UniProtKB/TrEMBL annotation:
Region (Disordered) residue spans: 468-488
Keywords for this protein: Decarboxylase, Lyase, Pyridoxal phosphate
GO molecular function, one term: aromatic-L-amino-acid decarboxylase activity
Protein name, as recorded: Glutamate/tyrosine decarboxylase-like PLP-dependent enzyme
PANTHER family, per database record: GROUP II PYRIDOXAL-5-PHOSPHATE DECARBOXYLASE (PTHR11999), MIP05841P (PTHR11999:SF70)
N6-(pyridoxal phosphate)lysine PTM positions: K303
Domain of life assignment: Bacteria
UniProt xrefs under InterPro entries: Aromatic_deC, PyrdxlP-dep_de-COase, PyrdxlP-dep_Trfase, PyrdxlP-dep_Trfase_major, PyrdxlP-dep_Trfase_small
Family statement drawn from the similarity comment of this UniProt entry: Belongs to the group II decarboxylase family.
Cofactor(s) for this UniProt protein: pyridoxal 5'-phosphate
Biological processes per GO annotation: carboxylic acid metabolic process
Length: 488
């Protein structure tokens, strides 16, 4: 019997439970393979295009076949990011409760823009946001937004900052735009993260508006110079400080910067993508002393809180400015209701988005305050062990004071540094990223995964010892493979 496309699509070739059960099996198999599989990918981009590509099928394909084929084709191109031996780009793994909640998020398929689209998602964000304020020492009335990552968290916070400083200068940027507005100065450290500049660019604030403050050898902003620059010009000002520099892990002196910001009536924004999580640790929160005095904060939950990608957080000490910069209205948007609910759409740049609060809620509840502190402190302890072990390897020089989870080091010259890094990554034992620091190549280890244990550290150190040992015996012989410095 000939069936229409519509009828074919509706045929229950496989009931959804079978697809989901098999998908869970594939997921568990992947997670269980992490200890023995190479951490880096084993397929080239060309291989993956061949495996995954081809013409779009003309007819529907059985969902179970689609999932199994996808898993089989993609597997060689997967990087073991959830592994305890992945140390690249400050990417945490997924806590079991957070991953499970993220699966439910996909199945539930809620749209958390408004309570009318799914009150459970909105209320979960309310609860998780309040827990995070408590955990991180932010003001009780600080507003918050769940966003994809620090890039959009910066955009959200700096939009609020733009509104606030221009409103103080008598300009309504939401009504009038930037054409003719008083110029805004942004003062930030010379070693800021690139996402800060990008967020400012999205907001119409270009590089010409930036005043770069020199930093010390650990990449901390020089506060006396900041004070001098602010005193030289009374234009509306935004200061962007940093909690955890991407290479060294160093923290700006936020207490001193907060004093300067208060004197100049400048907005203080803190880029704390991973470093602000130290506020949860009694042993490390001295590093963020004064952070609670800022006007806004940006951080990632997919880093040290170990929830699945993507998950960023924006907090603002001035809810009125935050809402003014983000709020939206339209005839068809059903807002308000009993108890004046906090409509999430008024606090984020997005209309449609994932219900990220479920995974954050699950992570926080599964860890509790003590669990978050222990996770942060344990990974920092592993970083110190790395630094001690690497320092004993001939030719290795540690470049930073290991204050949190970042270890920065290099070997005799750029060529040797690159060669050793490539050998470790190509060995499959561990993954970390190359970087540049003070004009020379370096290697950065970022320990932020809940699964990393003493054995992972020992295996990685042994991989470095073997890589250097091979360097001693065969000089500059090329190992082949893909250079880690060329990875994204």
């Amino acid at each position: 019997m000939d069936l229409s496309f519509k009828d074919q699509w509706r045929l229950p070739a496989v009931v959804p439970s079978e697809v989901f059960t098999r998908t869970a099996e594939i997921a568990v198999e992947w997670l269980q393979s992490l200890d023995s599989r190479p951490i880096a990918e084993s397929a080239t981009v060309h291989d993956l295009r061949s495996r995954l590509g081809g013409p779009l099928p003309r007819d529907p394909v059985d969902p179970l076949e689609v999932v199994e084929d996808l898993a089989r084709a993609a597997e060689p191109g997967l990087v073991g990011i959830p592994s305890g031996r992945y140390f690249g780009f400050v990417l945490g793994g997924g806590l079991p409760a957070a991953v499970a909640a993220d699966w439910l998020t996909s199945v539930w398929d809620q749209a958390p823009a408004m309570y009318a689209c799914g009150p459970a998602a909105a209320v979960t964000e309310e609860v998780a946001g309040a827990w995070l304020r408590q955990l991180l020492g932010f003001p009780d009335d600080a507003s918050f937004a769940f966003v994809p990552g620090s890039q959009m968290a910066h955009l959200t916070c700096l939009a609020a900052a733009r509104h606030h400083v221009l409103r103080a200068a008598g300009w309504d940027v939401e009504e009038l735009g930037l054409n003719g507005a008083p110029p805004i100065r942004v003062l930030t450290g010379a070693r800021r993260h690139a996402s800060v500049d990008r967020a400012l660019r999205f907001l119409g604030i270009g590089k010409a508006s930036l005043t770069l403050i020199p930093t010390d050898g650990s990449a901390r902003m020089r506060v006396p110079r900041l004070r001098e620059e602010l005193a030289a010009d009374d234009s509306p000002a935004i200061i962007c400080a940093q909690a955890g520099e991407i290479n060294t892990g160093a923290f700006d002196d936020m207490d001193a910067i907060a004093d300067v910001a208060a004197e100049a009536r400048a907005w203080l924004h803190i880029d704390g993508a991973f470093g602000l999580w130290t506020a949860a640790s009694p042993a490390l929160r001295h590093l963020v002393k004064g952070a609670g005095r800022a006007d806004s904060w940006a951080l990632d939950a997919h880093k040290w809180l170990n929830v699945p990608y993507d998950s960023g957080l924006a907090f603002c000490a001035h809810p009125q400015a935050h809402r003014a910069a983000m709020s939206v209205s339209a005839d068809y948007l059903v807002q308000g209701g009993p108890g004046e609910p906090r409509e999430p759409i008024n606090w984020t740049p997005a209309f449609s988005r994932r219900a990220r609060g479920f995974a954050v809620y699950a992570a926080l509840r599964s860890l509790g305050q003590r669990g978050v502190a222990e996770l942060v402190e344990r990974t920092c302890a592993h970083a110190r062990t790395f630094a001690e072990g690497l320092a004993d390897i001939p030719g290795c020089r540690i470049l930073n004071e290991v204050v949190i989870n970042q270890v920065l080091f290099r070997f005799e010259d750029d060529e040797t540094t690159e060669r050793v890094l490539r050998r470790v990554v190509d060995s499959g034992e561990a993954y970390m990223s190359g970087t540049s620091f003070d004009g020379r190549r370096a290697i950065r280890i970022s320990v932020s995964n809940w699964q990393t244990d003493d054995g992972d550290v020992a295996r990685t150190l042994e991989a470095f010892r073997n890589a250097v040992g091979r360097q001693d015996t065969d000089g500059s012989a090329d190992m082949g493979g893909t250079s880690a410095s060329h990875r994204p």
